Amino acid sequence: MSDAAFMQQALAEARAAAAAGEVPVGAVVVRRGKVIASGRNASVDGHDPTAHAEIVALRAAAQTLGNYRLDDCELFVTLEPCAMCSGAMLHARLKRVIFGAADPKTGAAGSVINLFAESRLNHQTHLQGGVLASECSALLQGFFRRRRDEQREASRLAHPLRDDALRTPDAAFDALPGYPWPPHYVSDLPALQGLRMHYLDEGEGGNKGERSSLTFLCLHGNPAWSYLYRKMIPPLLRAGHRVVAPDMIGFGKSDKPKKDSFHGFNAHRQMLLDLVEKLDLQNVVLVVQDWGGLLGLTMPMAARHRYKGLLVMNTMLGTGDVPLPAGFVAWREMCAKNPEFDVARLFARGNPQMPAAECAAYNAPFPDKGHRAALRAFPPMVPDSADADGAAISRQARAFWQHEWTGRTLMVVGVQDPVLGVPVMQELRTLIRNCGEPILLPEAGHFVQEHGEPIAQEALRFFSPAA
């Protein structure tokens, strides 16, 4: 029989694994042209991390032959073996290993490492990959696609969509560059009234009560979403902290009410306050920019014990008793005249260093104008009179930051921002007690987080206990 014929038998084992709810990988052991053993993934059913298809097949072959040495045997497997399985194959002294699809994440036969090419080992096994690779890959891809669909359907049933809202299809967010984190959803917050809010929640810090363990609560603005923090999140996680980054209703993966009139300052503020309470966030460093600051800067006074620090970037307080910055007024006018403006183009213009795929990711939540109500509603929603929605609470926040704030504050400013740049931030600095001189980023514009990794590193130094 040919290699392809033996791989077809391994594929039959893989299909049986899929039918049992296991990752579809199958293997057969061949000796002198005959299959003497077979195996398929059984880790889930057996609660056994070693029960990979190759290991199952090797064990069966050794029992058949009455010998743990399999010198004159060949093993066919549908997926490139991992380090564990590769090591077992070498210990068994197989004559030959043949696999189908490559595994770029854990493959130990050339994709990540190649144990079979290690000349210092006392046994050499001949290796061949790519046999029926397309069929083996298609089986795996179909399995994981169905699993994602099932998870999405379960999420849909757990968080039914209101009649007056839209939900961006999950497929719009597949394979976005630099955004690997799984979604979290909540719809039972009182202020949400059944709408589904998405948030990222990564890391184990913050709620352990240790001074060195922080929760970075990262709030985005308009027209961004939690994707804005993708460059800041990894260094914060590596340092052992927790990161929570919600998508406000109307943005990102959160539900999008159809009517512009749904959106209001105090309504959005209460949704964020409810989320903080729901997650019981502790030792919080509040990270804000744009609308993340307009709303976020009003939050700590509602639960002072939760907040330890503030990282504030290109934003303001909307108190309604001082004129809005000229740059913001110009932005508001542009949005009114061009309500369907291209979000990706906006990011590309202000961030020439960004790849086109990353710019396009900011368009993902808004496939058509029906999904864009928040983009239209937020610019006129900034309080511009003393009695505007949100103005009174913002004035209370101003007094809080001036006289009652006891945490540490780090200010970072994108110098190229024409909307909320250096003059606006210097004015905000005078309103925040004990706020030091801002860090100026000469190359950064309004969306400062696109230069996020050095900002995160500076924040780690600034908010560390020894700082």
Spell the H/E element sequence: HEEHHEHEEHEEEEHEEHEHEHHHHHEHEH
Euclidean distance between termini CA atoms: 69 Å
- Biggest beta sheet attributes: 8 strands, mixed
Poorly predicted spans: none
The average pLDDT is: 94
What is the number of helices? 15
Task: Describe how the helices and strands are arranged.
Blueprint: H1 3-19, E1 26-31, E2 34-40, H2 43-46, H3 53-65, E3 73-79, H4 83-92, E4 96-101, E5 126-128, H5 133-158, E6 165-166, E7 184-186, E8 197-202, E9 215-219, H6 233-238, E10 242-246, E11 256-257, H7 265-279, E12 284-289, H8 291-296, E13 307-313, H9 326-337, H10 343-350, H11 356-361, H12 373-381, H13 391-403, E14 408-414, H14 422-429, E15 439-441, H15 452-463
Parallel strand pairs: 3-4, 4-5, 9-10, 9-12, 12-13, 13-14, 14-15
Antiparallel strand pairs: 1-2, 1-3, 6-11, 7-8, 8-10
